[in-house]
Fold this protein.
Amino acid sequence: ANENLILVSVFEDAIAAAEFLRLKSVDLLFLDINMPDITGIDLFKSLEIKPLVIFTTAYKNFAFEGFELNAVDYLLKPIDYIRFKKAVAKAVEYRQYKLQKNTNTLEESIFVHSEYKLVKIDIGNILYIESLEDYVKIHLQVGKMILTLSTLKKMLEKLPPEKFSRIHRSYVVPIKLVSAIVNRKAQLTDGTLLPISDTFASFIDDWQNQS
């Protein structure tokens, strides 16, 4: 049992499930990818209003498509209960995060999709963010780098503007981690040097005013 979950309904028929979801609003959907008539992925794509979704399946090869649909998580059968609880906790936390965002509550963390699942990142742990065409690399002070399908513009929309600044078409930095400006480069506290482009040269004045 999980105190955060209330079971609303169960379906073995994808068409009936789709009809129910068009009439009723749910917060979280557990969806088996392999179902009669249509796949769980096609069912989810067909929904006009998409709830948070956790995909379940016995086949690993569906993971990437689940990732493309921004699934909260992806559970392989047989489903381990501890793993199930973690997925639910992540969904609950993400829903709270979205509600806080709508009320402009001060945010200490963000969520991104990486490696087929939702990942929580503490804002204070971000070293810098790097653009790689359709992806961004989030370099952390502690922990391994996180790769997510996004753009710097979208990332900046998630971050507090008073704490993060774009210094180049390829880089966003936490302002407080810039320890020096060296030959038009931002030097971070760990020694990393990142270029400051002409387009974002106003960052130098902004940084000096904050220092």
The longest helix spans residues 81-102. The CA atoms of residues 32 and 56 lie 5 Å apart. The radius of gyration is 21 Å. The chain has six helices and 13 strands.
